[in-house]
């Protein structure tokens, strides 16, 4: 009974999964939880504890962006193992909408407009639709083009424009604000790079040869990273609110 319940709410370890990918995704998810908790403490509740101000440090912000791109690339890699990437992309995109609505209710000034779940969901949908075309493209060539497109746009986008409603593409108005923002340009190209490089790794069977690293606590988080992403902010914010607002600590 216990196994049945865990299978409904959490993904169980599957012999066919590449354990390294789950472990890496879990590690990055833990970093996200730490950063967002520190952000809540410092920016929302005004607590420093003598060190939390480093969430604003350039090096920490660089690491945040670096690991976010790594997470997007890894998500692209894993599309090569999804039985129904279109369905999964729609579900993840809907989870992104839940994050947007939840943030709008709790912290309206920092509403998440097109955060990382919205990006990954959309990217999965596009890759699923374009799969027949991608199948005609050499894996390394596709990866090289996608990587070149990412570096050609990452230092340019987002671009400020006067018209609204195209922020998901990377065109934003001067007053645009979002608590988490990963527009399709440039980040779709990072996802696409992951898709092609993952296909190449699978073709060469490097994923099976070198993908056995399994740090079980991390791989558990990695297998269920969407749930952890959805729940970690409400839990962290709720605990902080209880401690510092209601209890006055």
Count of DSSP H/I helices: 11
Low-confidence stretches: 1-8
Count of spatially separate domains: 1
**Helicity level:** 55-70%
- Integer-rounded radius of gyration: 19 Å
Q: What is the H-and-E element order?
A: HHHHHHHEEHHHH
Estimated share of beta-strand residues: under 5%
Cα-to-Cα separation, first versus last residue: 41 Å
- Morphology: globular
Q: Which structural category do the helix and sheet elements fall into?
A: mainly alpha
Q: Strands across the major sheet, in which order? A: 1-2
The averaged pLDDT comes out at 90
Tell me the number of strands.
2
Largest sheet: 2 strands, parallel
Overview features:
single chain; about 250 residues; mainly alpha; two-stranded parallel ribbon; 11 helices; 2 strands; about 0% strand; globular; disordered N terminus
Q: What is the fold's blueprint, element by element?
A:
Layout: H1 2-9, H2 19-44, H3 58-78, H4 85-106, H5 116-129, H6 131-134, H7 139-153, E1 159-160, E2 171-172, H8 184-203, H9 206-210, H10 216-223, H11 225-246
Parallel strand pairs: 1-2
Outline of the structure:
With 249 residues, the protein is mostly helical. It contains 11 helices and 2 strands. The N terminus is likely disordered.
Descriptive overview:
- The chain has 249 residues and is mainly α.
- It has one domain (14-246).
- 66% of the residues lie in helices and 2% in strands.
- The chain contains eleven helices and two strands, in the order H-H-H-H-H-H-H-E-E-H-H-H-H.
- It has helices at residues 2-9, 19-44, 58-78, 85-106, 116-129, 131-134, 139-153, 184-203, 206-210, 216-223, 225-246, and strands at 159-160, 171-172.
- Strands 1-2 form a two-stranded parallel sheet.
- Helix 2 runs antiparallel to helix 3.
- The longest helix is centred in the first third of the chain and has 26 residues, at 19-44.
- The radius of gyration is 19 Å and the shape is globular.
- The termini are far apart.
């Amino acid at each position: 009974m216990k196994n049945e319940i865990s299978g409904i709410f959490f993904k169980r370890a599957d012999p066919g999964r590449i354990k390294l990918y789950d472990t890496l995704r879990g590690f990055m998810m833990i970093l996200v939880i730490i950063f967002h908790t520190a952000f809540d403490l410092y920016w929302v509740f005004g607590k420093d504890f003598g060190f939390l101000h480093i969430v604003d440090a350039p090096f920490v912000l660089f690491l945040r962006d670096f690991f976010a791109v790594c997470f997007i690339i890894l998500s692209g890699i894993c599309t090569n193992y999804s039985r129904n990437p279109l369905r999964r992309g729609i579900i993840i995109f809907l989870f992104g909408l839940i994050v947007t609505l939840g943030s709008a209710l709790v912290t309206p000034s920092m509403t998440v407009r097109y955060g990382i779940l919205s990006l990954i969901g959309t990217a999965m949908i596009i890759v699923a639709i374009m799969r027949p075309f991608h199948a005609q493209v050499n894996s390394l060539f596709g990866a090289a083009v996608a990587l070149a497109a990412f570096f050609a746009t990452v230092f340019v986008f987002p671009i400020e424009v006067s018209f609204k409603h195209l922020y998901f593409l990377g065109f934003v108005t001067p007053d645009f604000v979002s608590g988490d923002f990963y527009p399709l340009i440039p980040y779709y190209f990072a996802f696409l790079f992951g898709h092609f490089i993952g296909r190449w790794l699978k073709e060469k069977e490097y994923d099976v040869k070198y993908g056995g690293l399994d740090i079980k606590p991390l791989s558990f988080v990695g297998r269920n990273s969407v749930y952890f992403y959805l729940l970690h902010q409400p839990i962290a914010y709720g605990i902080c609110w209880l401690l510092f607002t209601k209890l006055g600590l």
